[in-house]
């Protein structure tokens, strides 16, 4: 879903396994073939409409809860089913699903996308559901926040969202320089403003990534809860997938039980997640004293089969033993040589 999502993250583990309606891989080797297959699937379940040349809207009508996701075409086609991740999550729970799909880094800055959400508002589309949730990560997190304004009262879950790419607002973020040519100042533009009329907003980000932390800080308000996920080198959505936290997060969001305390319990999964542990160890490797490194390695070795952490712990213990021996030797009284009388 994110512009930083690794292909492996696409195989999200859901709380209830479900077989998604698969797209015929032989027919989906190119975009037109994939579009044709999606249109066939949507005939029975909802609709699949083009929004200009680089965007599509896929709607699956199933239940009174609606999950709205924003996803990248390449990420979807990298999945075995070639279906949106949000489709699997919604299908497993009997929810309806609306997915706005982008081909390339469009940032969803297209008048036809604006027009589509305008039509949804005019048709009171979101009012047909008992509950509406918006979800997105990275660039798609920007879109989820920007278009959530169309559904007042919606619950919003944002993973490392961007507030804007306008140079006047986020000139310090140089990761997507080409996107600065897009218009972020017109309709559905500045994401933090667009979530002012929604329900609860949860912003997950890695504070170790300066740009992500600065974007997250622009989302302010009593209805906004910031959840920190440090030591993930910015790959928050990918890590959530591998720690099997997407399902619990979405379920907690829908039940109204997502809080800092409940997330803290979920976040304990990081204690067995290799990339997090390696990042944590690396952050403490340059400290003058190895005490924190020793504590980390001792904890990991006691719980997991982690050869690299065991080796580092043995190195620290060996260095401590050598230092103690050297100190003890220095403390011994020096032998004196008798002088002739």
Q: How would you sum up this structure, described in words?
A:
The chain is an alpha/beta fold and 341 residues long. 41% of the residues lie in helices and 14% in strands. The chain contains 14 helices and eight strands. An eight-stranded mixed sheet has the order 1-2-4-3-5-6-7-8, sandwiched between helices. α12 packs antiparallel against α13 and α13 crosses α14. The relative contact order is 0.10. The N terminus is likely disordered.
Short recap of the structure:
41% of the residues lie in helices and 14% in strands.
Q: What integer is the average pLDDT?
A: 87
Radius of gyration: 25 Å
Coarse shape: elongated
What fraction, in percent, of the residue positions are helical?
40-55%
- The total count of strands amounts to 8
In whole angstroms, how far apart are the ends? 90 Å
Helices, by number, come to 14
Helix-strand topology string: HEEEHHEHEHEHHEHEHHHHHH
Major sheet summary line: 8 strands, mixed
Strand content of the residues, in percent? 5-15%
> Biggest sheet: strands side by side, in what order?
1-2-4-3-5-6-7-8
Structural class: alpha/beta
Give the low-pLDDT segments: 2-21, 24-28
């Amino acid at each position: 879903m994110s512009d930083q999502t690794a292909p492996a993250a696409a195989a999200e583990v859901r709380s209830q396994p479900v077989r998604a309606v698969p797209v015929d891989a032989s027919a989906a080797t190119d975009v037109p073939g994939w579009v044709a297959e999606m249109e066939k699937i949507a005939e029975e379940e909802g609709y699949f409409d083009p929004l200009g040349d680089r965007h599509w809207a896929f709607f699956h009508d199933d239940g009174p809860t609606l999950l709205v996701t924003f996803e990248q075409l390449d990420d979807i086609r990298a999945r075995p089913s070639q279906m949106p991740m949000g489709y699997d999550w919604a299908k497993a729970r009997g929810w309806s699903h609306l997915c706005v799909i982008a081909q390339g880094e469009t940032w969803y800055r297209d008048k036809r996308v604006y027009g589509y959400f305008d039509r949804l508002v005019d048709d009171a589309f979101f009012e047909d559901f008992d509950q509406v949730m918006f979800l997105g990560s990275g660039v798609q997190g920007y879109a989820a926040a920007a278009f959530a304004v169309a559904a007042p009262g919606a619950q919003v879950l944002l993973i490392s969202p961007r507030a804007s790419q306008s140079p006047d607002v986020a000139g310090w973020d140089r990761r997507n320089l080409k996107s600065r040519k897009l218009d972020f100042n017109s309709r559905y533009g500045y994401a933090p403003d667009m979530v002012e009329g929604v329900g609860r907003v949860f912003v997950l980000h890695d504070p170790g990534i300066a740009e992500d932390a600065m974007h997250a800080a622009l989302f302010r308000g009593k209805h906004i809860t910031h959840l920190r996920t440090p030591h993930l080198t910015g790959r928050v959505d990918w890590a959530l997938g591998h720690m099997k936290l997407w399902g619990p997060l979405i379920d907690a969001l829908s039940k109204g039980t997502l809080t800092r305390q409940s997330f803290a319990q979920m976040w304990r999964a990081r204690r067995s997640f290799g990339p997090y542990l390696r990042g944590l160890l690396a952050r403490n490797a340059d400290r003058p004293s190895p005490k924190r490194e020793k504590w980390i390695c001792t904890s990991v070795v006691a719980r997991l089969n982690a050869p690299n952490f065991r080796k580092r712990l043995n190195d620290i213990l060996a260095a401590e033993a050598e230092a103690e021996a050297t100190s003890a030797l220095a403390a011994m009284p020096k032998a004196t040589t008798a002088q002739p009388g």
